[in-house]
Amino acid sequence: MKTPDVVAYTDGGCRGNPGPGAWAFMLIDPASRNALERTGGERQTTNNRMELLAVIEALRALRGPRKRVRLMSDSQYVINSATKWMAGWKAKGWKRKEGELKNVDLLQQLDQLVSLHDIEWHWVRGHDGEPGNERVDELTNHGMDRIARGESAAWESRTVWTGPT
């Protein structure tokens, strides 16, 4: 891929599975280094749903058609869903050969959003010092902290990213 229009870091987490969970993303414009950070969450959810929602919300936040996106995630479930398994699930009517497909509502949303952009998927090891991944992990935990206090996990900030892209 040429230089991306946007670098996206995403993360989702849950305290208990199921339990209270949050998602976060950070979108960085590599040219200006301007960044948008956003979180959200749910009081009763699963880790995989939050990982999926992080990517879905990041892609929804993109403005304009056909963005070149370098998407960074520590979720092999999300990366494999988008790059390896999605076509087979669609061909089987959104089912697995073993039966029901979990998170089909979110997977269908992801499928639609992925078709709108050129995405280069990158798996990053979580909790391994990668600055963008560490930041969205921190934001996810802040979202879960807000839920634990009885507050909304929703939060947004615009900043200038000083880390690597």
What topology emerges from the helices and strands here?
Layout: E1 6-14, E2 19-28, E3 34-45, H1 47-60, E4 68-73, H2 76-91, H3 104-114, E5 118-123, H4 131-148, E6 155-160
Parallel strand pairs: 1-4, 4-5
Antiparallel strand pairs: 1-2, 2-3, 3-6
Descriptors for this entry?
single chain, 165 residues, alpha/beta, Nucleotidyltransferase, domain 5, 6 strands, 30% strand, globular
Overview of this protein structure:
- The chain is α/β, with parallel strands linked by helices and 165 residues long.
- The chain has one domain (6-160): Ribonuclease H-like superfamily/Ribonuclease H (Nucleotidyltransferase, domain 5).
- It has 4 helices and 6 strands.
- The protein has a 6-stranded mixed β-sheet with strand order 5-4-1-2-3-6, sandwiched between helices.
- α1 (47-60) runs parallel beside α3.
